[in-house]
Amino acid sequence: MRLQILFLSLLAIFIGATAFAPATHAQNEKKDYLSEGEADKIRDAPLPPDRIRLFVLFADDRLKKFQYELNRTAPEGRRTEILNSLLNAYAGCMDDAADQIALAQEKQIDIRVPLKLMQTKGKEFLEILQKMDSSPGPEYDTYKETLQDAIEGTKDALADADKAAKDVTPAPVRRKPS
Predict the structure, then answer these.
(1) Distance CA 108, CA 94 (A)
(2) Cβ-proximal residues to 90 (8 Å cutoff; 6+ apart), any chain
(3) pLDDT of residue 23
(4) Which of 4, 56, 94, 162 could form a disulfide with 157 if both were Cys (CB 3.0 to 4.6 A apart)?
(5) Residues in the chain with pLDDT values less than 70
(6) What is the pLDDT of residue 13?
(7) Among the listed residues 178, 129, 134, 117, the one whose alpha carbon sits nearest the alpha carbon of residue 154
(8) Rounded distance, CA 40 to CA 58, Å?
């Protein structure tokens, strides 16, 4: 009798753990700086090149929102938190794009087109961030460290993209049949 109770208890625990595991994994997979729609787009993107493009677009969006918030006159309230979270989200998107580069290389997937996008946009982003850092505004101290982290993250992502661009083999040349 005790053995049956023990067996049923273990079975119940096992079933409960497996039933909730996928939900827990799905929650952990969603990046906290992406909206539900953006996270769905990332999940629906079949290959790393598509994800790289999406992460670069999301980074662009976060940087534009940061610039908007910075130039907007708003009450203090949560302003510091908003500015820092937008910069952190930007850096997270760039970091995730760089991670997708590594994944694509590992799986030997052609990423020439998204690499060019990342290199072009990344250089634009870096110029904007460095300009903000070299000519600080009145609230600069509230986001200085996060801005410097975003600059370093962008430099790292660009270095990864540049290295990957050098490592990418050229497209095969099609020969005309003789």
Answers:
(1) 21
(2) 59, 62, 63, 66, 125, 150
(3) 36
(4) 94
(5) 1-31, 74-75, 169-175, 178
(6) 53
(7) 129
(8) 13
DSSP state letters, 85-129: HHHHHHHHHHHHHHHHHHHHHHTT---HHHHHHHHHHHHHHHHHH
Place of tokens 């995730």: 96
The pLDDT, as a whole number, for residue 62 is 97
Distance of CA 152 to the CA centre of its chain: 15
pLDDT of 16: 47
- For the chain, the distance separating the N- and C-terminal CA atoms, rounded to the nearest angstrom, is 82
* pLDDT for position 94: 96
* Residue keyed to tokens 């050229």: 170
Over its C-alpha atoms, the chain yields an Rg (Å, rounded) of 22
Residue type, 37: G
DSSP-derived secondary structure letter, 149: H
